[in-house]
C-alpha cells in the first residue's frame, strides 16, 4: 500500500512540467513529512529549495572569505554540487516580514556562489538550498557566531561591536559567554575595545570585574 501511494505520488510530480511548480510541490511534501518526522527538531531534516532572490545577507556577520577561497568554494560546488544547505532565518514566519524572505544565518558565501556564478545559477535554476530557523535577531546573531567560531573564522573588531549589540539587548556577560563560547575576560576585552560607556551600561561590577581590572589595568600602571 505504501509503495503504491509513493509511486502514484512520484508519477504526479513527474507530470508537473513547470519547474517552479514542481519544486513548490516537492517542498510542500517535504514540509508535511517534516511535521511527522521523529527528527523534526533538527533543521537539516527539511532542506528546501527557494528562489535565490528571496535569500538575503544579514547585517552583522563579520566573516570574510578571500578571493582564492571563494574560487575554491565555487569549484567545490561546481564539482560536488551543494553538499551543505544555507542556514537561514524565516523572516516571514518570525513576523518580521510580510513576504517570503530568508536571512542568512550561516552560508553567506554558498549563497553568493549560487547567485554570482552563472554556471551554478543556471544549473540550479536560480534556486538555493536552505534550512530554516525561527529566532529573534539577537539569537540569530549568536547562532551565526557559533557557526563561525566553530570553523575558527571571525573578525575581532566586528565581534566587539556584536558584543555591544547583545549588551544593548540586555544580555549579561555570563549569557554572552555561554551563547558565543567565549571566556569572561574575552568578553570584557571586547567591551573595552568598543567603548566603555555603552559596553558596560548593564555590567555588574562584581568580583569578576575586579579580577579583570587587576589583571589588565594594574599591569599597565
Can you describe this structure?
With 221 residues, the protein is α/β, with parallel strands linked by helices. 57% of the residues lie in helices and 10% in strands. The protein contains eleven helices and five strands.
Write a concise keyword list for the protein shown above.
single chain, globular, alpha/beta, five-stranded mixed beta sheet, 221 residues, 10% strand, 11 helices
Main sheet record: 5 strands, mixed
User: Any idea what the shape is?
Assistant: globular
Helical content stands at 55-70%
Structural class: alpha/beta
Gap between N and C termini: 80 Å
pLDDT under 50 segments (min length 5)?
none
Q: Kindly provide the radius of gyration, computed on alpha-carbon positions and rounded to a whole number of angstroms.
A: 22 Å
Q: Write the H/E string, N to C.
A: HHEEHEEHHEHHHHHH
The pLDDT mean sits at: 83
Physical arrangement of strands within the biggest beta sheet: 1-5-3-4-2
Tally of separate helices:
11
